[in-house]
Design goal:
- By secondary structure, the chain is an all-alpha fold.
- 77% of the residues lie in helices and 0% in strands.
- The longest helix has 36 residues.
């Protein structure tokens, strides 16, 4: 296990460097000049000396090799530089928004798992009955309905029927749990519903596949109770693809909820990425992509390690 962990940790280095290199090149290829955006002109209405001074202040006068070479060294020191748009350290900007995105992703994942696994298991055990059909409608509805549309319906329903709207300012749970709950409950429900729909479909399919195995027929033939056969034998062996899906979706939720954050006015990582790209804020974009890539790598590693706990036959060397 130690050798396997060491290999995976070492492989993280070229993966993260590759992601950083790719986004570095893409951001420089995109048309636009952050200095012009800051000065608010189109190039012809601005003093070239002023424009040159702003570029020099932002470090844009350096060659691309110098710009890229200094960035990995800063990452090793947890120094992602300063935002070209706000002038604030990128780490401070991240620390403002990261707790919100992590909380939303974590609780949406918990809600989806609590809903999806029992429903998927129940639909597989009661295949082609009214229970299975209800679960199918639930899951297909979650896949078909856009998350932002569900969010808008939630807000309209709350405003029209209850005269209540979510708070506009994020309050951390350790400061005011009730205010935090009021703001996060509906985004969590909206995202969790869509996430649970995907997980329910995957759980149903994998449990159905396992229930057709010979050892499950043997368990039935021995006269074991349905709960023991389904939960102890079938569900645990059917969870490996579901765990992979849960891990991948959780990593995506950290930085991929741009529309949901916009609908519920949440100042999270997703909106931060879009704003940084629009402003050509190179240090911020590079830091966010590095953070999201790091999250995917770590979560994939944890998912692989979880496999061995669910299936003792899996061994890593």
């Amino acid at each position: 296990m130690r050798t396997y962990l060491l290999k995976r940790l070492l492989l993280m280095v070229p993966t993260l460097l590759g992601a950083a290199s790719l986004v570095f090149v893409i951001m420089r290829v995109i048309p636009g000049d952050v200095a012009l955006l800051i000065l608010g002109g189109d190039g012809g209405q601005i003093d070239q000396k002023q424009l040159t001074a702003v570029r020099q202040q932002l470090g844009l006068h350096d060659s691309l090799l110098v710009q890229f070479g200094t960035w990995p060294w800063g990452v090793l020191r947890l120094d992602f530089g300063n935002s070209l748009w706000t002038g604030q350290p990128v780490v401070e900007e991240l620390l403002i928004r990261l707790p919100l995105s992590l909380e939303l992703a974590l609780f949406a994942t918990m809600v989806s798992v609590i809903i999806a696994i029992p429903l998927g298991m129940l639909a597989a055990v009661r295949q082609d009955t009214w229970v299975d059909y209800v679960v199918r409608v639930f899951s297909i509805g979650g896949l078909a309905l856009p998350g932002f549309w569900v969010g808008i319906l939630c807000i309209l329903g709350l405003v029209i029927f209850f005269g209540w709207g979510p708070p506009l300012e994020f309050t951390p749970p350790w400061i005011d749990p009730w205010a935090n709950f009021q703001m996060m409950v509906w985004p969590v429900v909206t995202v969790g519903y869509r996430f649970s729909a995907v997980t329910t479909r995957m759980t149903r399919s994998t449990v159905l596949e396992v229930l057709r195995e010979d050892y499950i027929r043997t368990a039935w033939a021995k006269g074991l109770r349905e709960r023991a056969v389904v939960i102890r034998h079938a569900l645990k062996n059917a969870m490996l693809p579901v765990i992979t899906l849960i891990g991948t979706e959780f990593a995506f939720l950290i930085g991929g909820l741009v529309v949901t954050e916009t609908v519920f006015t949440l100042n999270g990582i997703g909106r931060f990425v879009v704003d940084a790209v629009a402003h050509r804020d190179y240090p911020v974009v590079q830091a966010l992509v590095f953070l999201i890539a790091f999250g995917f790598v770590i979560i994939n590693l944890l998912v692989d390690l979880t496999y061995a706990w669910f299936d003792p036959r899996i061994r890593y060397r």
